[in-house]
Amino acid sequence: MISSMTGYAAKTREFEGGSLQLELKSVNSRYLDFHFRIAEELRAQELSLRELLASRLSRGKIECRLSLGAASARGEPLRINGELLASLKELSRQVRADMPEAAALSVNELLRWPGMFGEQSLDPSVVGSEVLALAREALDEFTQSRGREGGKLAALIIDRVEAMRAIVARVAPRIPEAQALFTEKLRQRLVDALGNASDERILQEVAVFATRIDVAEELGRLSTHLDEVERVLKAGGACGKRLDFLMQELNREANTLGSKSAVTEVSQAAIELKLLIEQMREQIQNLE
Q1: What is the pLDDT of residues 225-262, one digit of tens each?
Q2: Would you list the domain boundaries of the chain?
Q3: Which CATH class, in words, describes the domain spanning 7-74+124-146?
Q4: What pLDDT, in 10s, does the model give residues 136-161?
Q5: Residues 233, 154: contact at Cβ < 8 Å?
Q6: What is the pTM of this model?
Q7: CATH numeric code, 148-284
Q8: Residues 6 or more apart in contact with residue 142 via CB below 8 angstroms
Q9: Which residues pair with 287 in a beta bridge?
């Protein structure tokens, strides 16, 4: 399967200790780059999350958000931790006595303070297994999202490959005739310019020029590189870097084709090929 580096998934899981929420999203990156935003009470789970994600993903800037909600879903009444609230009130008073300009703690900040609704002690082994179970569910949805996007990008690239093949097929049969006419014009110009020069010298000059404008080799390599693009897409997996390298090779051949062109039709074909290559390159930047 071809995967895009753009994806999104969000999952929630209820368990004895509360409600876990996990969000994954990613954008393009040359490497695998993780950014975790994890609630403090779940910070110990970062390493296991990192290992799980790295086992399934190879490229992209991945943002992972993990939070824990209170266990209110079970219908239990919430009770404020009076001792903690009193401690925070006294600490806030002391700070504002020394720093009058400091803002007081808001109700929102107090209610979100760790431990404000009782002891809330969580068994690390239970939390760890629940987090990993949630992460696997989210990761499945996440990879499916990236896979759907990657399939669409692969189809767009194949369309460009077929368009390039059509250009090569259109122009290749006409090149020998066009080059023959051009070299004949060149031979006549040399005769007119050199006057009494020997025929052998004229033929040598014409032969050298004909070799310089021969583009059969470039057309052959273009077709070979297009075959490889299709093979890589068919094989699937993490192929973005390989395809990006092939775009460089295709662009090199198109540039050479344009520089060696002696007829307008070949020059136009080179421009069209370069446009299609650039369109493919833009799509490939999104592939894993």
Answers
A1: 999 999 999 998 889 999 999 999 999 999 888 877 66
A2: 7-74+124-146, 82-111, 148-284
A3: alpha beta
A4: 999 999 999 999 999 999 999 999 99
A5: yes
A6: 0.69
A7: 1.20.140
A8: 7, 8, 9, 24, 26
A9: 4
